[in-house]
Amino acid sequence: MVSSSHETLHRIFQEDPGLFVRAVKGVGVTFADPVAAVPFPTDLTENRPVERRVDTLLRLETGDGARFLLAVESQGKPDSDKPASWASRHVDIGPVQWPSLTVRPLVLGPDSLPVINSPDEAARDIPLTVLSAAVHRRAPDAGAILKALATALKDLSADDESTASKFIELTEQGLGVTPAANLWRQIMAADLSFFQSQTAQNLRAEGRAVGRAEAMLLLLGDRGVEVPEEARERILGCQDLDVLGVWFRRAVTAVSVAEVFGASDDG
To answer: Is 161 exposed, middle or buried (0-12, 13-18, 19+ CB in 10 A)?
Structure first.
């Protein structure tokens, strides 16, 4: 199943095709800045009954007159079913005696994308910072990147609220289901209280829900109530503040998670 973080890792290039040129500098490859970009259909299926799709496909024209197709594929972890598409492995096409074509992917990952933890640096290239946050979402540096990004978005929103809202949403999606995603919701709830877009309001509500859910788990832990993983996921996944309020009040005296949820609750 395609995840939101998978979508963000290629969708960000649709929002800013020039990001490709800036990002691949980390692997030592230099392209001229694009002057035009045209999205192409991503269905590469041929007449034969084989379905082929690419995540994002753009035709770029650069300042030095070059034209080429940029195919962007997102892969969050090794896939044994697709060994040829993983990482920087070269793929030879043609007979083993004389391969007629060799595909050499450019790979952007934690080793090649910078950790952008300075608000000034983040403000200079917000799309690259969003990509950095998504790629480093499981790294110890994730929190520093998100704080720098939040500061940059706060400044951006004063001039262009719709663009800031777009990058807030992309960051949220790019972090997937990780502790960094919870941190991002909390940062949005605290640092962007001035931001009145629907996205920001939703993030603030989610931040309050996450905070209440985590407080409930701490309460149950302090009281010695065992919380199975399935119940933990249900509590952390609940975004309804009213329901969380009911559960929290029950958690004050409950001796089991079943009492917290209540016999009459759904699920």
So the answer is: middle
